[in-house]
Amino acid sequence: MKFSVMMILLKKALKHAEVMRFSTYTFRKSTIYALSSGHGKCGVAVIRVTGPKASNAVQAIAGFSKLPEPRFAHLRNFRNVHNGDIIDKGLVIWFPGPKSFTGEDSCEFQVHGSLAVVNGILNSLSLIPSFRIAEAGEFTRRAYFNGKLDLTEVEGLADLLNAETEIQRKQAFLQSQGFLSKLYLEWKNDLSKELAHIEASIDFEETENLDSNKDESIKNISRIKQQIETHLLNGRKGEILRHGVKTVILGKPNVGKSSLFNLLCGRPAAIVTSTSGTTRDVLEVRLDISGYPLILVDTAGLAKHSSDPIELEGMKRAVEQLDNADLIIVVMDASDYSSWKINNKYLTFKDYLKCYMKNLELESYFFDCSERRSKPTIFVMNKSDLYSVETENVVSISCKTEKGFDNFLSTIGVELNKICGEPTKEHPCMNKTRHRQHLEDCLSEQNIFIEKYKASDMDVVILAEHLRRALRHLGKLVGSTSTEDLLDIIFSEFCIGK
Ligand SMILES: Nc1nc2c(ncn2[C@@H]2O[C@H](COP(=O)(O)OP(=O)(O)OP(=O)(O)O)[C@@H](O)[C@H]2O)c(=O)[nH]1
Ligand SMILES: [K+]
Ligand SMILES: [Mg+2]
């Protein structure tokens, strides 16, 4: 048998294996239920049911002899399945499959949100034959297996449930609506077309035809490759937005770092005293600034001469924070600046800044552009109530009077926008290590393909296999090929009832 024919048969077998995996899941299906709204006392609680026997819940609990009109809210008495007592009066909505979230027959009960009512309904559901309580993420898992959502949409939904700020919400919502998968599917489609050309030529042994298409093929694949590369570069923004922008406050002792930290938090989270070296440990809070998630870190002041082992440890920890910082806020003291003189002359701000950073032994972080360590930085001159400094590239503020604080907030907002960007439908950002991994692997397969194809030093059949692998990585991204382990990780991010 020819090698290329073997490859085609192997490919078909792999496809079959995928279909098998999907169908084994359907065999395991039972009807599941769960409280989908938050736990604890609340105005209204939502209980969801999905699975082949969901209609039994509508009939047994809401007392319909014939199923009600789908997707309409019906006000009904809900009865205890065991003794017929009325538990509560509420709304029931019937969603016959496949037009439901999971794609299966589903229904939703909206009841008064007390523990007793919710337990009453859940107990009744448990008495209906073949009903069981849902596992965490099981509703979404079913939606995925029924083709209602692909994997990046599932991830987007998980992020949406966890979103803390407006821009995080926007990124997650766009992803849950399929804008990221749309991009990946476009690339998958384009690459598939290129592969189809090559496969057709192999099957019919049309080597002349293959040669004439070579330049066109290389051009098309290079274009896709470049789009993926740009997407990866932008992806760093999406990843930071998803995790939060780690923002480290640094400076000499007593300049007002903790005062600024507290002002941003809106509460006295850190101890502030006039004693130099007050802060020792690294303090961290999560904040929402202009819709962006900020992980704000207060650190010990960096003193040049210290023999106190606790202070030295604090400084070591402060500097370590720089390694994975996304944004740095360097705080200075205006009264300190005003007192610095060299040869009896006051320093320009630029010279002062150089000396200041040299004192902190952090010059290379900010001034050595050849080093990759240079990070986005905001320079803040605090204590402007004592001495006013109006210079370019420095934000003047007084933590004592709060003068200049609004200006400081908008400066942070601008930086955050530069760091995270703002996700749009046209440019959705990747935001997970999983995405990066598959895209990088996809790129490296494309690179091998282009290089070997150009040099004509590889059998075309093997060459095509590199394109196939590149495609498989895109497939893994949207979840048309995935493993149970990966699915377990992704669905574990959901709570019960989603
Ligand atoms: N006049 C004036 N005093 C300030 C201002 N901000 C902070 N201070 C005072 O400066 C002193 C040091 O403030 P902290 O916030 O503890 O300074 P820090 O940089 O965190 O100090 P360490 O943790 O010791 O490194 C305190 O006495 C504050 O009240 C300001 O804007 N104006
Ligand atoms: K202090
Ligand atoms: Mg402090």
From TrEMBL:
SUPFAM superfamilies: P-loop containing nucleoside triphosphate hydrolases, TrmE connector domain
Pfam families linked: MMR_HSR1, MnmE_helical, TrmE_N
Keywords tagged on the record: GTP-binding, Nucleotide-binding, tRNA processing
Source domain of life: Eukaryota
Main location: mitochondrion
Name the record gives this protein: TrmE-type G domain-containing protein
PANTHER family in the record: TRNA MODIFICATION GTPASE GTPBP3, TRNA MODIFICATION GTPASE GTPBP3, MITOCHONDRIAL
Cellular component aspect of the GO annotation: mitochondrion
Gene Ontology MF annotations: GTP binding; GTPase activity
TrmE-type G domain span: 244-417
Location within or outside the cell: Mitochondrion
